[in-house]
Specification:
single chain; 303 residues; mainly alpha; two-stranded antiparallel sheet; globular
């Protein structure tokens, strides 16, 4: 057993060089199998040793050191993109307090002060908007060199070249998804991949009744974020999941987040098939759409 900081610094390599077989247990599943009333490191080690002896340890995937380096850079980019999105939402939220709607690009123009004064926004709130715009500009500058490093890696990865055929997935999102998944053979089905991302709903059962709750959000945070980012384009009519997005949004009272989560699950289903079959994305036909006739078909018109 080792602490998290020791694992991050050393990883499994020192133990492997000494001839040890390294297994990393899934903490939730290990706790479910061998829960204890008293919890100490000594008791935990004894329980884990007993689980290993009985071959009951649920192991988790351990990426190589090179993969961890790549995932750290992608995680850094994800963090900055999320901060940028939060700053943009903050600016729109301030505008919304005064009933003003405007694209974020309008707030970066030189004459933005006159624009805000004409719409009756006081100075304190104008300064809040200016801070948000400055944060976005700073993050954009910090993202440029990082994305310049990651771009060649994405274009050189054959998995990314398949993933970019999925609507909403670009080079860097494809690299993020590929690095989080690793070997697609780890997942026996697309449902397993969705469960790994934490995009499945919690299920509460009691007797004969069962109901679903919020998303479980257990598993890979970065894979879940990448799938939801790819689903942001589902509102476009040319997106293959546009109708699904509208149906779920209407069913949920106009809320967009459940609809985006539903589309994100479709993105991961497409991801699994693309990587497992090693074929580009091929959207299925819409409901009610007739199958295309083969070139050799012949038709006769009714009299």
């Amino acid at each position: 057993m080792c602490r998290d900081d020791e694992w991050c610094r050393l990883g499994p390599r020192p133990a492997q060089r000494c001839g040890w077989t390294v297994q990393v247990a899934d903490a939730r599943k290990a706790k479910a199998v061998g829960s204890l009333a008293a919890k100490t490191d000594k008791l935990d080690a004894r329980v884990l040793a007993e689980l290993v002896r009985r071959d009951l340890v649920a192991q988790v995937h351990v990426p190589t050191f090179t993969d961890r380096e790549l995932k750290d850079r992608l995680g850094r980019r994800m963090h900055m993109v999320r901060l940028r999105t939060a700053a943009i939402n903050r600016a729109h939220g301030v505008l919304g307090q005064f009933g003003v709607t405007a694209p974020f690009g309008r707030l970066r123009e030189p004459a933005v002060d006159e624009f805000l004064i004409d719409r009756g926004i006081p100075e304190v709130w104008r300064r809040s908007i200016a801070e948000a715009v400055a944060i976005v500009a700073m993050l954009n500058q910090r993202l440029i060199p990082l994305e310049r490093e990651l771009g060649p890696l994405a274009r050189a990865d054959p998995r990314v070249q398949l993933l970019v055929t999925i609507p909403g997935v670009g080079d860097l999102l494809g690299l993020t998804i590929a690095s989080e998944i690793g070997d697609i053979s780890r997942f026996a089905s697309a449902r397993k991949l969705i469960g790994y991302s934490g995009l499945t709903a919690r299920v509460h059962q009691s007797g004969q009744s069962a109901r679903t709750g919020k998303l479980s959000k257990t598993g890979s945070t970065m894979l879940r974020w990448a799938a939801i980012e790819a689903a942001q384009q589902a509102w476009r009519p040319n997106n293959p999941w546009y109708q699904l997005y509208l149906d779920v949004k209407q069913r949920c009272g106009g809320k967009g987040n459940p609809a985006k989560a539903a589309v994100a699950r479709k993105v991961l289903i497409a991801t699994w098939h693309v990587l497992a079959l090693q074929q580009p994305f091929n959207p299925s036909r819409s409901r009610g759409e007739a199958a295309p006739a083969p070139a050799s078909s012949s038709y006769s018109l009714a009299d």
